[in-house]
Write a structure and sequence with these properties.
The protein has five helices and no strands. It is globular. The mean pLDDT is about 80.
């Protein structure tokens, strides 16, 4: 994994990544309410990329994260989509996604 992470880091630094840099931003950039953010962090979901690859079923199975929190997440993703002109959504398939151990400065 370390070798793959180094290769991906090189690609990112060269600006040739197939993965949008927004996916590497911390979930606090979504400006979620405290309870929703804590629920996600309790499941080790720290980055937007880690969030969007989860299914609705996965997220709704998180204790204290109900339909209202799920709608709030979707609303905040929609704001990110408008700002960055991208199309992020829950349940995305991102084959190039990096394991959660990968760290990048945000």
């Amino acid at each position: 994994i370390s070798e793959a992470n180094n290769r991906i880091k090189e690609i990112l630094l060269q600006g040739k990544s197939p993965i949008h840099p927004v996916l590497f931003k911390k979930i606090d950039k979504l400006k979620l309410n405290t309870r929703t953010q804590h629920c996600l962090e309790s499941e080790n979901i720290s980055y937007i990329g880690e969030l969007v690859v989860k299914s609705k079923k996965d997220l709704c199975a998180i204790p204290q994260l109900g339909p209202r929190s799920f709608r709030h997440i979707n609303n905040q993703l929609e704001i990110i989509n408008q700002v960055y002109k991208i199309n992020l959504y829950i349940g995305m398939d991102i084959p190039e996604w990096i394991p959660e151990e990968y760290q990048i400065n945000n």
